[in-house]
Specification:
Blueprint: H1 12-22, E1 27-28, H2 44-59, E2 66-67, H3 80-91, H4 98-101, H5 114-129, E3 140-145, H6 155-159, E4 165-170, E5 173-178, H7 188-192, E6 198-203, H8 207-211, E7 216-222, H9 232-240
Parallel strand pairs: 1-2
Antiparallel strand pairs: 3-6, 4-5, 5-7
Helix pairs in contact: 1-2, 1-5
């Protein structure tokens, strides 16, 4: 048994990955959920099982964790941190995921993304076991830009917490790009965009997207001529009217 504290913080990708790596049935036990202050009226085990089943359907996997009766009092010897350690040990040497294989991060922003990493690890296992495995469902979230609305202010890249969004100016053009393996669907770029140019969409898990370091161009517009106004600090101050402090 593995104690995870609360199912509200457990990712369906973790349950699926545990099932694939350990090749065993997964049972979910919970108790006293109705007394929990964050209890929302639904059964946590049922919600997690439903989310896991939905994910598995998108990946073409026939699996659903079992919702067991309330915890019968048996001692649980393993902690949540240890199950991550066990899964990482099993993945070592068979995964090309940067954070699991010890490679360098794909971007300058180093943020851990356990849910996305576990999902990619599960997909890698399925690919290894099923020749020609493909994901037709639009399973990965990714920002999109409404044509003609982007002003090139670059606020979205400044606030993106995972390094999904980045920009560069070349040949007189501003290019906004996105890494589909870094987006967590947090919505910060959509909320911050001053021209309301950003939208969230879904893309399928194609072979190129899963296997390669892909950056998708979201928009390409003519760069502003005033280089001083092109600095990130100047754009943020102009748009949000906030002072810029330098140490």
């Amino acid at each position: 048994g593995v104690s995870v504290g609360c199912f509200n913080g457990v990712s369906p990708a973790l349950i699926l990955l545990a099932h694939l790596l350990l090749n065993t049935k997964i049972e979910l036990h919970s108790s006293d959920c109705e007394r929990c202050p964050i209890h929302n009226g639904g059964c946590p085990t049922q919600v997690l099982a439903d989310d896991c089943e939905t994910l598995c359907e998108k990946l073409g996997v026939q699996f659903r964790p079992v919702c067991a009766e309330e915890n019968d009092g048996d001692e649980i010897s393993l902690g949540r941190r240890r199950i991550f350690s066990q899964l990482s040990d099993r993945l070592h040497g068979i995964s090309e995921i940067t954070s699991l294989s010890g490679g360098a991060p794909k971007t300058d922003k180093v943020f851990t993304m356990p849910e996305r990493e576990m999902l990619i690890a599960a997909i890698e296992l399925l690919k290894a076991r099923r020749p020609g495995f493909e994901i037709s469902e639009k399973i990965f979230p990714l920002p999109g830009v409404i044509s003609g609305k982007c002003s090139g202010c670059n606020i979205c890249t400044l606030l993106c917490p995972t390094g999904c969004l980045s920009d560069k100016t070349e040949d007189g053009h501003f290019k906004l790009t996105a890494d589909p393996m870094r987006c967590t669907n947090c919505g910060r770029c959509i909320e911050a965009c001053p021209t309301q140019a950003m939208v969230m969409r879904g893309i399928p898990g194609t072979e190129a997207v899963i296997s390669d370091s892909v950056r998708i161009v979201l928009t390409e517009i003519s760069a502003q001529k005033d280089e001083e106004e092109q600095t990130a600090e100047a754009r943020m101050k102009k748009i949000f009217d906030v002072p810029i402090y330098r140490s």
